[in-house]
Amino acid sequence: xxxxxxxxxxxxxxxxxxxxxxxxxxxxxxxxxxxxxxxxxxxxxxxxxxxxxxxxxxxxxxxxxxxxxxxxxxxxxxxxxxxxxxxxxxxxxxxxxxxxxxxxxxxxxxxxxxxxxxxxxxxxxxxxxxxxxxxxxxxxxxxxxxxxxxxxxxxxxxxxxxxxxxxxxxxxxxxxxxxxxxxxxxxxxxxxxxxxxxxxxxxxxxxxxxxxxxxxxxxxxxxxxxxxxxxxxxxxxxxxxxxxxxxxxxxxxxxxxxxxxxxxxxxxxxxxxxxxxxxxxxxxxxxxxxxxxxxxxxxxxxxxxxxxxxxxxxxxxxxxxxxxxxxxxxxxxxxxxxxxxxxxxxxxxxxxxxxxxxxxxxxxxxxxxxxxxxxxxx
Length: 378
What we know:
Distance between the termini: 19 Å
Oligomer: single chain
Number of domains: 2
Helix content: 40-55%
Largest sheet: 7 strands, parallel
CATH class of the largest domain: Alpha Beta
Number of strands: 13
Radius of gyration: 21 Å
């Protein structure tokens, strides 16, 4: 079987890139007879270029420097000569973006967040482009993969896609680096944490992440527990500066730490040093930080909304993401109840048994195999 993998739209280190990296690795390890042709460009993340499997081959496209327009040109024009040369059985796109005129697409749509939070897109053109991309997948993809039953319901409701054309395949906890005590202490020192107990958030600052309410919840909590801190890890995005403003106005800059971008090692060190993950998003298609935290034995406080109960299972303490006082009470419960923390840690480990990248690979291979041997095309 020959599978081309469209990695053109992926340039960062967020959930979709993590999904793609782990899926490629899992398929390569479990199915050595499946040829994987990775379609890349010069700005593709380094980890896509470093697989060492004989059946994984890299192919690079190039266009003039035209910003985001370059991706569109590569994907809708430049990719076709390469596909004619490679003659793959299928083109697998781990993100929603796919070439319109190739008739053997399998595409992954992780969520419909931009439909629910339109303010996260900078202009009308981007909104139209995203919606058009989803409708293209509806019309042209042989199969749409999504990562939770929640996201499947969203696609059915918002885009009226036939449920039979959508398959749910869960993600899993990413492989995280081992961190020495030296790195642990160095990281805590770098962010001026010392021996201070703290709660931890990792992710971006988009409105769907609910950081302003989470910060308000921490402010309420810290009125009675002033010795605690809230560490917010992830790139600081000036487009979504409300969390910074909330901290400033609340007068808690000494207790809320925005780290900016952190390395994988620093992220693991910050997880392991925390009292718990505090991750009460309004909207998640899956929620990888929940599984990351559980895999490291760190208790989880998360939201009762969107996909998060589906993913976290019984291994989390749930809060109403619209109620700052309710979230503050969950922070207090973590601080006061040693037994609760131990139970959440144990149930978190148990919850992880539901997820593995090997299972993800098996489910994807089953879909690929069925489509190839049925001769399906659009």
